[in-house]
Amino acid sequence: ALVAWLLISPAGAGQEELKPFYGTWGGSAVAKNRDSKYFGVGTRASNITIAPEGEGFVIKWTTTKGGDTAKAKTATLHFAPAARANVYKAAVSGEPADGKPYIWASVEKKTMTLYILAVNAKGGYDLSIYERKVDGDEMEVRFRRLRDGAPIRIVAGTLNRQK
Q1: Is 100 helix (H, G, I), strand (E, B) or coil?
Q2: CB atoms inside a 10 Å sphere around CB 116
Q3: I need a labelling partner for 149 at 20 to 30 A (CA). Which of 9, 109, 119, 155 fits?
Q4: How far apart are the C-alpha atoms of 24 and 20, rounded to whole Å?
Q5: Which of 73, 48, 70 is nearest to 61 (CA)?
């Protein structure tokens, strides 16, 4: 019976858990880092598009830091189901010890969490964690960057589904 279940059940459990995330989202977020108490916090405009791709998904996001010298950063990642249900591996994942970050995502209920793990030049680690929690047409976003366990930057905000 277990063999039959394995043969008919896809590793990533299909697209159902991903559907609430599909679409284009836009809004703003507030960034804090360890120097925020001295220099204040910064706001960022954020746009995210998540779409189905094969058995997985593609995510593209653009973050724009405000002010007179606005800087935009865009990233696109493609994910395919991993061997574990609700876990997805990025097509560009590499070996962190060789300077290539390892990237994966997980979906639990209404939260998609994307992880990027890299080994830094000193042999320690940098871990970026992107949490996206969907509630209808609203997405709560939270980004944390840790270096050897210590928080470097935290960004939090709310995005709305674009019609």
Answers
A1: coil
A2: 20
A3: 109
A4: 11
A5: 48
Residues pairing with 103 in the sheet: 116
For residue 74 the two structure tokens come to 């865009």
Distance CA 62, CA 93 (A): 20
Structure tokens at 153: 């930057």
Contacts (Cβ under 8 Å, ≥6 apart) of 87 = 12, 81, 104, 105, 106
Q: Which two tokens stand for residue 29?
A: 């977020």
Environment class of 58 (CB within 10 Å of its CB; exposed 0-12, middle 13-18, buried 19+): middle
Place of tokens 């969490």: 113
Nearest to 128 by CA among 82, 73, 56: 73
pLDDT of residue 108: 95
Q: Which of 86, 87, 91 is nearest to 75 (CA)?
A: 91
Ranges of beta strands (E only) in 34-110 are 42-53, 56-65, 71-81, 87-90, 102-108
* Length reported for the chain: 163
For residue 27, what is the DSSP state?
Answer: E
Backbone angles phi, psi at 94, to 5 degrees: -135, -160
- What pLDDT is stored for residue 34 in this prediction? 59
Question: What's the confidence (pLDDT) of residue 39?
Answer: 47
Give the amino acid at 30.
V
